[in-house]
Amino acid sequence: MIKTITIFFFFLLSITLTAQSSELLNGKWVFKKALNKEVDDLGRKTLKSDIINKMTFEFKSNSEFSAFAFGQNMNGKWALSKNAKVITLSTGEEKFELLILKLTESELILKFGLGEFLMKKL
């Protein structure tokens, strides 16, 4: 009986944590800083001109997202993994995975490709 109650408790805990993470993601986020230390001068210049304070993601509670990057708008569906560590973005035929390194009410640190980026909630 105790084993069943323990399993049920951890099941409920995992559902609750995923739901909380999903709610924390809802809203509009803007890229503020690249956290990679090994970015060269050209990379920093590109980040500053094309990404920092310009690239945004908006995660909506109906599992839709919109983004603005490199002068283009992007729309699609988003889903959070069961362990609340990966966001999958789907735009028709393409899928992208973003690894969540940190998520709070006001900060989101994402890793995609070779980059790690700090985002702030607007």
What does this structure look like?
The longest helix is centred in the N-terminal third of the chain and has 24 residues, at 2-25. A hairpin with a 4-residue loop joins strand 2 and strand 3. Strands 1-2-3-4-5-6-7-8 form an eight-stranded antiparallel beta barrel. The protein is globular, with a radius of gyration of 17 Å. The protein has two helices and eight strands. The chain has one domain (2-121): Beta Barrel (Lipocalin). Helix content is 29%, strand content 46%. With 122 residues, it is α+β, with helices and mostly antiparallel strands.
Keywords:
122 residues, Lipocalin, 8-stranded antiparallel beta barrel, 46% strand, globular
The gist of it:
The chain is α+β, with helices and mostly antiparallel strands and 122 residues long.
What's the layout of helices and strands?
Blueprint: H1 2-25, E1 27-34, H2 41-51, E2 56-59, E3 64-69, E4 72-80, E5 86-91, E6 94-103, E7 107-112, E8 115-121
Antiparallel strand pairs: 1-2, 1-8, 2-3, 3-4, 4-5, 5-6, 6-7, 7-8
Number of separate helices: 2
Q: Assign the CATH architecture.
A: Beta Barrel
- In the CATH scheme, what's the topology name? Lipocalin
How many structurally independent domains? 1
Instruction: Give the rounded overall mean pLDDT.
Output: 79
What does the main sheet amount to? 8 strands, antiparallel, barrel
**The CATH top-level class label:** Mainly Beta
**Spatial gap, N to C terminus:** 47 Å
What is the number of strand segments?
A: 8
- Helix proportion: 25-40%
Shape: globular
SS-based class: alpha+beta
Rg computed from alpha carbons, rounded to a whole number of angstroms: 17 Å
Strand content: over 45%
